[in-house]
Design goal:
Blueprint: H1 15-28, E1 33-36, H2 49-65, E2 70-73, H3 77-86, E3 90-93, H4 103-110, E4 114-117, H5 135-152, E5 160-163, H6 172-180, H7 182-186, E6 193-194, H8 200-206, H9 220-233, E7 237-238, H10 243-260
Parallel strand pairs: 1-2, 2-3, 3-4, 4-5, 6-7
Length: 278
């Protein structure tokens, strides 16, 4: 619900178009629809609270009326609280509760699941690219510290989801290193969300001989590859812009996993289980 997101800003900006888009994604196999009213791309300007509420709440309400499971993507406690009241089931805060000190108490009181992402501040100035000696170790340690703070704030341990924050204060090499060691993030003991869809590091991987990356909307096949790798690693969910290819990729991963354990009962056709798409 933004005019300025990095890959699809403005495409689903009005309420009716956004609700239809959400329903289309569910039809393609999405288990959750993530609704956000504020771009977090590098250099994006924050919108004010009233505008974020104006963008988000009608879409949450419209999708909830259709029985859709919704996560709200916000750094503001007021937006999270009103979205939960309007029918959202989960709060996805890229700051992990750091941007708004009221966020953790609001989520704790609601009992909703909470996504804690690795975050080193808004993507402005020097924060756009982070500096790391050991990106995997530092991200895991910083995520662990943030999870401990969230638990101390009253959010139950079984309500916490972790996200390594691909693309947030990280370069392409950092993102790839984190994807290679998702087991280290999973070792924190919480469900893992991977949000790689169309991001800059995929453009870097796919760049042509001249070094030019393909446009964001041409990175969906690469996104599906990351989805398959994430599912194989044991991720709980992946957050994607286009669902069909990812749903198919995850289904193949599950079929191969079942082939290793032929006595296991097959899942119902079309079900994505723990590695559903988001």
């Amino acid at each position: 619900m933004t005019p300025d997101s990095f890959s699809d800003g403005g495409r689903w900006f009005d309420t009716s178009t956004a609700v239809k888009r959400g329903l289309d994604l569910v039809a393609q196999g999405a288990d959750l629809i993530d609704v956000g009213g504020e771009s977090t791309r590098p250099g994006a300007t924050r919108v004010d609270e009233a505008e974020e509420l104006r963008r988000v709440i009608p879409v949450v309400r419209g999708l909830a009326a259709e029985g859709v499971t919704i996560s709200v993507d916000t750094m503001r406690a007021s937006v999270a609280e009103q979205s939960l009241a309007a029918g959202a089931a989960l709060v996805n805060d890229v700051s992990g509760g750091l941007a708004d000190p009221a966020m953790i108490p609001v989520v704790a009181a609601s009992g909703a699941p909470f996504v804690v992402m690795h975050w080193r501040g808004l993507l402005e100035g020097t924060n756009v690219r982070g500096t790391y000696d050991d990106v995997v170790g530092e991200v895991v340690d910083e995520l662990h510290a943030r999870v401990e703070a969230v638990l101390a704030g009253g959010i139950a341990a079984d309500r916490v989801i972790v996200d390594p924050g691909l693309g947030f204060s990280k370069g392409a090499d950092h993102d790839l290193a984190l994807l290679a060691r998702l087991d280290r993030v999973l070792a924190l003991g919480h469900p893992l969300l991977v949000a790689a869809s169309r991001k800059r590091f995929l453009g870097h991987v796919l760049a042509g001989p001249d070094g030019a990356p393909p446009p964001a909307r041409e990175r969906d096949a690469a996104t599906a590859a990351v989805s398959a790798l994430s599912a194989q690693a044991g991720a709980w969910a992946v957050r994607v812009h286009e669902v069909r290819a990812t749903a198919d990729a995850v289904r193949v991963v599950q079929a191969v996993a079942r082939a290793h354990t032929p006595d296991a009962a097959p899942s119902p056709s079309g079900a994505h289980g723990a590695e559903g798409t988001r």
